Amino acid sequence: MLTYTIRRLVLAIPTLLFISLVIFLLLELAPGDPMAQVPLTVPPEVKEKMRIALGLGEPVYVRFWKWLVQFFWIEPQVLIDTVFGTSLSEGKLRIISWQTRSPVMDIVVQRLPQTLWVVGMAYVVAILIAIPVGIYSAYKQYSIFDQAGTFVTMIGYSVPPFFTGPLMIVIFAVWLGWFPSIYDTTLVVDDWASFKRQVWQMFLPMMVLALQITAQIARFMRASMLDNLNQDYVRTARAKGLGERTVVLAHVLRNSMIPVVTVIALAVPSVFGGSIITEQVFKVNGIGQLLITAIQANDLPMVQTLTFIFAVLIVLFNLIADVLYGILDPRIRYD
Question: Model-level pTM?
Answer without folding.
Answer: 0.79
